Amino acid sequence: MPKRIDLNQPTIVAELRQMGFPVCITSDLGKGFPDLVVGGFGTVFLFEVKNPEEKWTLTEKEQDFHDLWQGMVHIIQTTEDAISVMTSSRTKT
């Protein structure tokens, strides 16, 4: 059974791709893996997409992934959130 995606995910994917960022949709992998893998500014970003229209929490599997992953996983609700994360990483190098 395919995993339900947040309604805002297709818009975020389309807008990021329109801006020239490669986006891999990984929401169907399940097991808590983040929804999107995005390349930008020489870095790979893992994004968990959550709908701002809904009250949300991470699922148990998502929380387990966040706890175990030694890299960064960012929770975003909008394209602007994604761009903010990606551009702020440029200033930290």
Task: Characterise this structure.
The structure is a single chain. The protein is α+β, with helices and mostly antiparallel strands and 93 residues long. The protein has one domain (9-88): 3-Layer(aba) Sandwich (Trna Endonuclease, Chain: A, domain 1). It is built from three helices and four strands. Strands 1-2-3-4 form a four-stranded mixed beta sheet, with helices on one face. The longest helix has 12 residues, at 79-90. It starts with 8 loop residues before the first helix and ends with a helix.
Task: Give the topology.
Layout: H1 9-18, E1 23-25, E2 36-40, E3 43-49, H2 60-68, E4 74-76, H3 79-90
CATH topology assignment: Trna Endonuclease, Chain: A, domain 1
Mind summarizing the main beta sheet? 4 strands, mixed
Rg, alpha carbons: 13 Å
CATH architecture designation: 3-Layer(aba) Sandwich
- The domain tally reads 1
Multimeric status of the protein: single chain
Contiguous helical run count: 3
Shape: globular
> Which band does the percent of strand residues land in?
15-25%
The N- to C-terminal Cα distance equals 41 Å
Structural class: alpha+beta
| Strands, count | 4
Instruction: Please provide the ordered H/E string of secondary-structure elements.
Output: HEEEHEH
Model regions low in confidence, pLDDT < 50 over at least 5 residues: none
